[in-house]
Write a structure and sequence with these properties.
This protein is mostly helical. It folds into two domains: about 100 residues, DNA polymerase, domain 1 (Orthogonal Bundle), CATH 1.10.150.130; about 200 residues, Intergrase catalytic core (hpI Integrase, Chain A). The protein is built from 13 helices and three strands; from the N terminus they run αααααααβββαααααα. A three-stranded antiparallel β-sheet has the order 1-2-3, with no helix packed on it. α6 packs antiparallel against α8 and α10 crosses α13. It starts with a helix and ends with a helix.
Length: about 325
């Protein structure tokens, strides 16, 4: 059973710190797991003040034995550290045993992205489908265009409302992590696809008598869930994979690439930086709180430059 301190902490994350629902849920789950572990480890009564570094090391070891990924273990330790800071601020607890625990060393994995040729082929296929199809195909093209044009996250796109899009000034209001809002520009191709989709959507909403609120809807006029959006993009990527153009779509796919919705965000950032965009400008567009998060895309560009160098230079 979750302790009252953990319940208060989760409420603090949700209502005062405005963390994303995903973070709140993950931190709550990590701390509930730690509470259950301490009950077994100490064999009875225990207190937050009495937890020592050895108990935390044993908890991390147990997670590793269960096959938990290093990144998940690092997040769990971060949750515990943040929780102890919360106890210090609200309960006056002065110890933080999680502070001394070593964070699991993470392998630095460069993000998967589509190169410019693959992007062209992806949009060529989506445009072909939209021209030959109806509402669904037009909507799918508009979503694809908006993902690549703005670099927004899956949850951000699924949560868009009609008033968030200004097709006159070609800009978009996005509610990101921590409910922070940012304005991002919308490219002309995405704007054109959106205007075409609006006409198709108006017909669906008139037929289903649904309110004009959600930007992207189903044939029944209901807001698309993040999972539904995810499946749409996966279908488009899979079509290219079947044609032999793009390998490694989704979990368990062939090859060492794992292309998915987020790959469009990675492609957006990588292509901007390749073209000489300022790193801080890209940070603002992506809605990253820290510049170090955006810097991973510079490594992607450097790796590609190295590959070109070794392929082209006669004495490389």
């Amino acid at each position: 059973m979750t302790s009252p301190e953990v319940r208060d902490f989760v409420e603090f994350l949700e209502k005062e710190r405005n963390d994303s629902p995903h973070t709140v849920k993950a931190y709550g789950r990590d701390l509930a797991d730690f509470v259950a572990f301490c009950g077994r480890y100490y064999g009875g009564a225990w207190s937050w003040a009495g937890v020592d570094r050895l108990a935390i090391r044993a908890w991390l070891g147990a997670q590793q034995q269960r096959g938990l990924a290093k990144r998940s273990a690092a997040r769990a330790l971060s949750a515990l550290r943040t929780f102890y800071r919360f106890l210090n601020a609200t309960r006056g607890l002065e110890v933080n045993p999680a502070k001394a625990a070593r964070t699991p060393k993470l392998e630095r994995k460069l993000p998967d992205y589509l190169d410019r040729a693959e992007i062209d082929l992806l949009f060529e296929e989506a445009e072909r489908r939209a021209a030959a199809g109806g509402f669904r195909e037009g909507r799918d093209l508009a979503m694809l265009e908006l993902f690549y044009s703005t670099g927004i996250r899956l949850g951000e796109l699924a949560g868009l409302n009609e008033q968030d899009v200004d097709v006159v000034s070609d800009q978009l209001k996005v509610r990101g992590k921590g409910k922070k809002e940012r304005i991002v520009p919308v490219g002309k191709h995405a704007g054109r696809a959106l205007r075409r989709y609006y006409r198709l959507r108006d017909a669906v909403l008139a037929e289903t008598r649904q309110e004009r609120r959600a930007l992207f809807v189903s044939r029944r006029g209901k807001r698309l869930t993040p999972r539904a959006v995810q499946l749409v993009i996966k279908r488009l990527l899979s079509a290219l994979a079947r044609s032999g153009t793009v390998e490694g779509v989704g979990v368990g796919a062939r090859g060492d690439r794992g292309l998915h919705v987020h790959s469009l965000r990675h492609s957006f950032a990588t292509h901007l930086l390749d073209a000489g965009a300022d790193l801080r400008a890209v940070q603002e567009l992506l809605g990253h709180a820290s510049l170090s998060t955006t810097q991973v895309y510079t490594h992607t560009s450097v790796e590609r430059l190295k590959k070109v160098y070794h392929q082209a230079h006669p004495r490389a």
